[in-house]
Design a protein that fits this description.
The protein is α/β, with parallel strands linked by helices and about 290 residues long. The protein has 7 helices and 15 strands. Strand 10 and strand 11 form a beta hairpin.
Length: about 290
């Protein structure tokens, strides 16, 4: 049995947030919510997250989990704010501990961040299942883009994070700390082996002018048209393609603020004695 899914597009960061629920029991999960953030002013808002709350209320859904597919480098998560409003736990893959250890050093957070995943209510292991009403969510570890990347499988509905994009855009980059194109290839095979009819819900889409963003594609479409995968690309060929592409990419515009927040499960840094929270900007670190 498959869940119902409603997808919400965050235009500024090109991010899809998905609300999935069991139609029989109305139990639900929110996957990859976005906190609005203006990098020019440093201002945050919860307008996009409030749309999720409004939808949950309208549909009379009972949110069991907020699920992160990984610690994102391109948007800030609204998980902490939604957790407070909905009184539900935030979960992420166990690999978050390695990501935290890496970026604790980058941002010199030795005194304020313990890299044990305790900022999240639940750390998820490969093959683990969590309930959503009468449905089960299966966790599939899909590292390669990042150490902590996971995919959530509910029936034939599959929430892939940044592991794969729409066919015209290919696959997730692998040049972040902990990234590995060979591991990503293996992870993608797990997803493709779910069957041609499986529907892959994407975390991002970057449409060209005049085109609507795509929130999902089938495995069959990925096999036929994905620019990094079609034609039965071998692992060695994929690694060459992915490595060459990564060498052309600049850093995501929001990586420095977003990682600091996202490895804390969406909690902003504690306010200083003037009542203001601050994010760090490491100079010449990359």
């Amino acid at each position: 049995m498959n869940p119902e899914t409603r997808s919400f597009y965050h235009q500024r960061t090109f991010t899809w947030t998905h609300v999935a629920w069991d139609p029989a029991t109305r139990k639900a999960v929110i996957i990859d919510p976005v906190l609005d953030y203006d990098p020019a002013s440093g201002r945050t808002s919860r307008d996009s997250a409030r749309k999720l709350l409004d939808f949950v209320d309208e549909e009379m859904l009972d949110v069991a989990f907020i699920l992160e597919t990984h610690a994102h480098a391109d948007h800030l998560t609204a998980a902490a704010w939604l957790k407070e409003k909905l009184s539900c736990p935030v979960a992420i893959g166990k690999g978050i501990c390695r990501v935290q250890a890496t970026f604790r050093d980058v941002f010199n957070l030795v005194d304020t961040l313990t890299p044990d995943g305790s900022q999240f209510e639940r750390l998820l292991d490969d093959g683990e299942e969590i309930p959503m009403g009468d449905l089960r969510i299966r966790v599939v570890a899909t590292p390669g883009h990042t150490d902590d990347s996971v995919t959530y499988v509910i029936g034939t509905s599959v929430y892939v994070g940044d592991t794969m994009f729409a066919p015209a855009l290919g696959t997730g980059r692998c040049d972040f700390p902990g990234g590995d194109a060979s591991r990503l290839y293996d992870s993608i095979q797990k997803i493709l082996n779910l069957g041609d009819d499986a529907v892959l819900y994407l975390c991002h889409d970057y449409p060209t002018d005049g085109m609507a963003p795509v929130n999902c594609v089938t495995v069959a479409e990925q096999r036929m048209r994905n620019i990094h995968l079609s034609g039965g690309v071998s692992k060695d060929e994929f690694v060459k393609i992915r490595t060459a592409r990564d060498a052309q990419l600049s850093m995501p515009g929001l990586i420095l603020p977003s990682i600091q927040v996202n490895i804390r499960a969406g909690e902003l840094p504690s306010a200083e004695d003037n009542g203001t929270s601050y994010l760090k900007m490491p100079l010449d670190a990359f």
